[in-house]
């Protein structure tokens, strides 16, 4: 489970609230009109920018972000090296009895196609399609969070303008100036906090997790296709190590071989 995100959110809000409480009357930082402008405006803008179906990825996207377990890329290297040795000794059909050891549905999907004798090109295409479908909702979630991070401070500025207009209209009544100024300042604060502590960090964390997942899936694709081609276990191991970033590419010949595998 991803721990740094809830820790960071909790710590960030705790520090902000602590500064507010230590500064005096915390009720001055609670303004319902400001909340409606920033939160309601951001939601409204997202509804304009995205369809209802697209926005449905927000809840599962947030759940996926918090439940994300970083893939162990070295384990991928060991797994496919071991599977390639089995296939080299006993043939691709021997991998059928190894399927029960594989928990990852994507890896099992690729190995099942290899065992069934499907052509290499078709396996590559099917894996690519599945990767695209798996990445699409994650990419969309990151895009929505990034958009929200843009909309929130913008509506904070809109609230500021509204508050200033209200304040300017009531210069003759000193009792109304404070309320207008509160809306003007607090909407900017709310928008900045939501954008820089919630939306934009969530978008960035999603992109980081997606990059790790993409690398793991690409290693799986290359590993399975290499096994289907009958490449040597040592070649597969070196190739996956380079994809995992554990060693430098060794020579033009190896780089050319890797390019063909991809």
UniProtKB/TrEMBL annotation:
Pfam families: MotA_ExbB (PF01618). It is found in: Cell membrane. InterPro entries: Flag_MotA_CS (IPR000540), MotA-like (IPR047055), MotA_ExbB_proton_chnl (IPR002898). Its main location: membrane. Keywords: Cell membrane, Flagellar rotation, Membrane, Transmembrane, Transmembrane helix, Transport. Residues 101-218 form the MotA/TolQ/ExbB proton channel domain. PROSITE patterns: MOTA. It is a multi-pass membrane protein. The chain crosses the membrane at residues 7-26, 32-52, 140-165, 177-200. It comes from the Bacteria. One of its GO terms (biological process) is chemotaxis. GO terms for cellular component: plasma membrane. Belongs to the MotA family. This is MotA/TolQ/ExbB proton channel. It comes from Rhodothermus marinus (strain ATCC 43812 / DSM 4252 / R-10).
């Amino acid at each position: 489970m991803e721990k740094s995100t809830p820790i960071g959110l909790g710590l960030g809000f705790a520090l902000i609230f602590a500064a507010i409480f230590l500064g005096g009357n915390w009720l001055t930082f609670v303004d319902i009109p400001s909340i409606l402008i920033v939160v309601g405006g951001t939601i409204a803008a997202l509804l304009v920018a995205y369809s209802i179906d697209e926005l449905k990825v927000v809840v599962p996207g947030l759940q996926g972000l918090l439940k994300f377990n970083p893939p162990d890329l070295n384990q991928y290297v060991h797994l496919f090296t071991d599977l390639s040795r089995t296939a080299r000794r006993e043939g691709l059909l021997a991998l059928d009895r190894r399927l029960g050891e594989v928990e990852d549905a994507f890896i099992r999907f690729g190995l099942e196609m290899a065992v069934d004798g499907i052509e290499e090109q078709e396996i590559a295409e099917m894996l690519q399609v599945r990767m695209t479908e798996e990445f699409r909702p994650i990419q969309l979630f990151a895009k929505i969070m990034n958009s929200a991070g843009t909309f929130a401070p913008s509506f904070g500025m809109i609230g500021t303008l509204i508050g200033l207009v209200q304040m300017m209209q009531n210069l003759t009544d000193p009792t109304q100036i404070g309320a207008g100024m509160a809306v003007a300042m607090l909407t900017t604060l709310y928008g900045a906090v939501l954008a820089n502590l919630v939306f934009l960090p969530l978008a960035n964390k999603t992109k980081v997790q997606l990059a790790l997942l993409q690398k793991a899936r690409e290693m799986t694709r290359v590993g399975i296709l290499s096994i289907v081609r009958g490449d040597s276990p040592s070649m597969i191991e070196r190739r996956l190590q380079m994809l995992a970033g554990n060693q430098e590419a060794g020579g033009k010949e190896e780089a050319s071989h890797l390019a063909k595998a991809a």
